[in-house]
Design brief:
- The chain is built from 9 helices and 4 strands.
- By secondary structure, it is α+β, with helices and mostly antiparallel strands.
- The protein has 2 domains: 2-74, Glutaredoxin, CATH 3.40.30.10; 82-215, Up-down Bundle (Glutathione S-transferase Yfyf (Class Pi), Chain A, domain 2).
- It has a 4-stranded mixed sheet, with helices on one face.
- Helix 1 (14-23) links the parallel strand 1 and strand 2.
- It is globular.
């Protein structure tokens, strides 16, 4: 049995949760509160004092990137071709840099200033607009229909789906579903991906007040 432990939000665990859903193996999704996280930390149950972690039959794996590659391999989403695998990793690394420019907004204490800073990131030519535009181009130009132009879905498609659309769930002050509408190729990618049977089934019971509503078909229609 595999068990992912993280908070209830999509966050850094959602891509790996979805990989496990695709894998078809038996797994458990354990969500914790902040107090429960602190207890895990105090008890020494977290290798690097951070979540998410995944418990495997062989032991615990920490760090979201490592967990994604592990669960992606279980799901058969790591390309066998070395070049294709490197291209997947390349895009994952670039995406990590994109989202990194969003992180400093969490430390802005004044709410109006925080909202203004986040909105500015999506203005024409600003870092998150550049990121969304680049991701749109990869979706549009892929001959195979997958972001890294792999023959089948890879972990970068999972990561792009969960971490891109999570931004517009309403959980981040200053961003909402209207922000994504100026990137039609991303909306097309969302439509295609959210209607994959495994994805559609996994989110079928999600309520409108849960952050994961953005992963359901027609979320942005």
């Amino acid at each position: 049995m595999h068990e992912i432990i993280y908070f209830s939000s999509p966050g850094l665990a959602e891509s790996s949760r979805l990989c496990l859903e695709f894998s078809g193996i038996s797994w458990k999704n354990t969500t914790v509160t902040w107090d429960e996280y602190m207890l895990l930390k105090e008890n020494g149950d977290l290798p690097w004092n951070l979540l998410p972690i995944i418990k495997t039959p062989q032991g615990i794996i920490a760090e979201s990137s490592a967990i994604l590659r592990y669960t992606g391999t279980l799901a058969g989403m790591e390309p066998e071709d070395l070049f294709q695998r490197a291209k997947v990793d390349e895009i994952l690394d670039v995406m990590k840099g994109w989202w990194g420019c969003f992180t400093p907004t969490f430390s802005i204490e004044d709410l109006d200033d925080k909202i203004a800073a986040r909105k500015k990131l999506f203005e024409l030519g600003e870092p998150m607009d550049i990121a969304m535009t680049a991701l749109s181009s990869m979706c549009r130009e892929s001959g195979e229909g997958w972001i890294a132009n792999t023959p089948s879905m890879s972990i970068v498609d999972i990561k792009a789906f969960t971490e891109t659309f999570m931004l517009f769930s309403g959980q981040f002050d200053g961003l909402d579903s209207n922000t994504i509408t100026k990137y039609p190729d991303l909306i097309k990618f969302h439509t295609r991906f959210s209607n994959i049977p495994e994805v559609k089934n996994y989110y079928s019971d999600v309520k409108e007040d849960q952050d994961q509503w953005v992963f359901k078909p027609n979320a942005f229609n």
